[in-house]
UniProtKB/TrEMBL annotation:
Domain Cobalamin synthesis G N-terminal: 42-122
Coiled-coil region: none
This protein's name: Cobalamin biosynthesis protein
Pfam families per record: CbiG_C, CbiG_N
InterPro entries associated with the record: CbiG_hydrolase (IPR052553), CbiG_N (IPR021744), CobE/GbiG_C (IPR002750), CobE/GbiG_C_sf (IPR036518), GbiG_N_sf (IPR038029)
Domain (CobE/GbiG C-terminal) ranges: 206-324
Organism name: Methanothermobacter tenebrarum
Gene3D superfamilies tied to this protein: 3.40.50.11220, CobE/GbiG C-terminal domain (3.30.420.180)
Length: 331
């Protein structure tokens, strides 16, 4: 995730600097940039380049500055506003699909500000269909039906999730259990069904790239995968593929972990690893293999063309793990 922090006052700039330090510790966040003053001009220039934009300013300034830039809830960045005393942090735009609500809660936790969430499903303790898709990295085809389905949830309806895949891990999600039921389906795609209407859903490919020191056993690797996915608030069952470099073909720990978890294991050719632009850089790995990070490169390659990292390299006792998600067109 790339985040832009905008401020207009000295106190706002101070908060931006403090927030940058704290957000940069999150392995889901890859870049945090600070911009000061010239709000309208800056927003026009950066609006499409960041996943989230946080304005440390009066909400009116942000609203007036972004109104001509918004285009589509599927593509607009998360927009968050925080007052320059750091007392309140408000999710303004793209609360669900853009992740503004979750980021607002994280900022509140980091700064002790009071979070302000106004999306109806959230304030009534429901998980909207768009929030469900965002959390589990699903793509929704007919987004025009989101409002109808979410309104039904607020009226007490239960939505059926019909799937050919095993989605039992969803039952561990308390908010999911409150509003949804699972039914075995025959079609190749997932469907959310409300009466005679339906929303078509397809999961994005989720790949964990793994690099290890020699001789690491499968128990440690599985525990490392669980810890990595916990940063994303995802169960291990949501993972689709495990990937690593071809130099790890003899590592029984990785092979056995794949077998135990019943997840496909892909070995990536060294030349293909070198083609990937990784976020993390290890001089040792680069000198030895010519790639900045084996786990990041393997995850990106197997996730497919245009894929993106959603968890940068994280290390656990001799194990390095990164997670990438596909960006291929699914509908």
């Amino acid at each position: 995730m790339k985040i832009a922090l905008l401020s207009v006052t000295k106190s706002g700039l101070k908060i931006s600097k403090q927030l940058k330090m704290k957000l940069s510790q999150d392995p889901r966040i890859f870049q945090v940039d600070i911009f000061h003053k010239n709000v309208k001009e800056t927003l026009r220039r950066i609006f499409d380049d960041y996943d989230a934009i946080i304005g440390i300013m009066a909400m009116g300034i942000m609203v007036r500055s972004i109104c001509g830039l918004l285009s589509d809830k599927r593509r607009d960045p998360a927009i968050i506003v925080m007052d320059d005393a750091g007392k309140h942090v408000i999710s303004l735009i793209s609360g669900h699909l853009g992740g503004a609500n979750d980021l607002t809660l994280e900022i509140a936790n980091l700064t002790s500000a009071r979070p302000v969430i106004t999306t109806s499903t959230d304030v009534h303790g429901c998980m909207g269909i768009d929030a469900l898709a965002k959390k589990y990295y699903w793509k929704i085809k007919n987004t025009d039906k989101i409002v109808k389905f979410n309104r039904a949830l607020l009226d007490g309806a239960k939505i059926i999730i019909e799937s050919p895949e095993n989605l039992e891990y969803l039952f561990n999600d308390q908010l999911f259990r409150k509003s949804y039921m699972i039914k075995k389906g025959e079609d190749k795609i997932i469907k959310a069904i409300l009466d005679k209407d339906e929303i078509k859903i397809k999961p994005c490919r989720l790949v964990a790239g793994v690099g290890t020191k020699k001789g690491i056993n499968e128990e440690k690797i599985i525990e490392g995968l669980k810890k990595a996915l916990s940063f994303l608030d995802l169960p291990l069952e949501r993972l689709d593929i495990i990937a690593t470099g071809e130099m790890k073909k003899g590592e029984k720990g990785i092979i056995n972990a794949s077998r135990i978890l019943k997840k496909p294991l892909k070995f990536v050719d060294l030349n293909d690893l070198r083609l990937e632009d990784t976020h993390s850089k290890s001089s040792f790995v680069e000198d030895k293999f010519g790639v900045g990070s084996v786990c990041e490169a393997a995850a990106l390659h197997v996730a497919g063309r245009g894929s993106r990292l959603i968890l940068r390299k994280t290390s656990y006792d001799g194990i390095a793990i990164a997670v990438a998600v596909s960006r291929e067109k699914v509908f």
